[in-house]
């Protein structure tokens, strides 16, 4: 198991404190800066590993940054804290974005990111809860994270703790029927402590979602399955912060976060071939320049 990085935990705590007192504009600027560093780290990590899912990592970065820096009630120095909020990255192929966010929050040393996908590294292509502190459940096969999150939300209710359970699915992932079964259960048991976020970048592995197995009208579909639906810009910190507020209706919250796959790097943005393409040395320099 990787060890806590206490220095990074202090950096995380200082940012948390700063964010608590910040005006909305300052908060958004602080989150933008954190996300910029995370995106740079993702590019470097994937380039070093020669593998990874750069498009989906970059589309989910602002969601992860807002959750870990601002919203989640967690303590990176104590990853198994009783009553903590839970986060599950159901689109487990974007492990790179999760590892980077966890390392930059102090769950383990950022230097470990250089081992991403190397033999014997804990940082495998998909997150493993037995290897990486902060990972709440193993994911990778699409369609499993939300059902587990529903179980965790039920468990929190049964234990009478007020933990909230956040889960991110890819939009292509919503084609898996298990998600819709899970939503039926979440709605039946009034799991208003569940926040199901769809990273709506409109691309899946081999094409656009709407050309493959169309999801729209996704908002109406989620509402008809009993969710309180919030549709936001998934790169707006102000909208993310507001959307992560507790349910007001007693229903599970479903957030459609409209995002751009590859967000932040012009030649990667909204291009299907960048689902898991690896940037060349020249492209890495260009990407880091755009993220400087
Ligand atoms: C059950 C299952 N089928 C296929 C795959 C292979 N796979 C990995 S990522 C992916 C596309 C996912 O698209 P989306 O959910 O939209 O993710 P994003 O666009 O955020 O990368 C597929 C088909 C998988 N991981 N699990
Ligand atoms: Mg997608």
Automatic annotation (TrEMBL):
What is the required cofactor set for this protein?
thiamine diphosphate
> What are the GO MF terms of this UniProt record?
magnesium ion binding
The record's listing under CDD domains reads: TPP_TK
Gene3D superfamilies this protein is in?
3.40.50.970
Q: Which domain of life is it from?
A: Bacteria
InterPro entries registered for this protein in UniProt: THDP-binding, Transketolase_N
- The residue ranges of the Transketolase N-terminal domain are 42-276
The UniProt keyword set, sorted, is: Thiamine pyrophosphate
> Which family does the entry's similarity section mention?
Belongs to the transketolase family.
The name under which this protein is listed is Transketolase
* Native source species: Subtercola vilae
């Amino acid at each position: 198991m990787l060890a806590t990085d206490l220095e990074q935990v202090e950096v995380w705590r200082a940012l948390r404190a700063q964010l608590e007192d910040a005006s909305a504009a300052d908060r958004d600027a602080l989150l933008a800066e954190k996300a910029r560093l995370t995106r740079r780290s993702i590019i470097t990590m994937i380039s070093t590993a020669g593998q990874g899912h750069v498009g989906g990592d970059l589309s989910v970065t602002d969601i992860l940054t807002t959750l870990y820096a601002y919203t989640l009630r967690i303590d990176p120095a104590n990853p198994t804290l009783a009553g903590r909020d839970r986060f599950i990255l159901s689109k487990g192929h974007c492990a790179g974005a999760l590892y980077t966010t966890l390392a930059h929050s102090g769950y383990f040393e950022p230097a470990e990111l250089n081992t991403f996908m190397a033999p014997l590294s804990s940082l495998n292509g998909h997150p493993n809860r037995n290897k990486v502190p902060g990972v709440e459940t193993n994911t990778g096969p699409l369609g499993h994270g939300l059902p587990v999150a529903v179980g965790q939300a039920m468990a929190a209710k049964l234990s009478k703790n007020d933990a909230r359970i956040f889960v991110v699915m890819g939009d292509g992932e919503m084609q898996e029927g298990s998600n819709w079964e899970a939503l039926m259960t979440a709605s039946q048991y009034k799991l208003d402590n569940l926040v199901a976020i769809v990273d709506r970048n409109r691309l899946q592995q081999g094409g656009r979602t709407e050309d493959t197995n169309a999801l729209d009208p996704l908002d109406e579909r989620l509402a008809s399955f009993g969710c309180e639906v919030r549709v936001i810009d998934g790169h707006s910190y102000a909208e993310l912060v507001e959307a992560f507020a507790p349910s007001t209706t007693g229903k599970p919250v479903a957030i459609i976060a409209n995002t751009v796959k590859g967000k932040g790097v012009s030649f990667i943005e909204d291009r299907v071939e960048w689902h898991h393409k690896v940037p060349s040395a020249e492209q890495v320099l260009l990407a880091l320049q755009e993220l400087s």
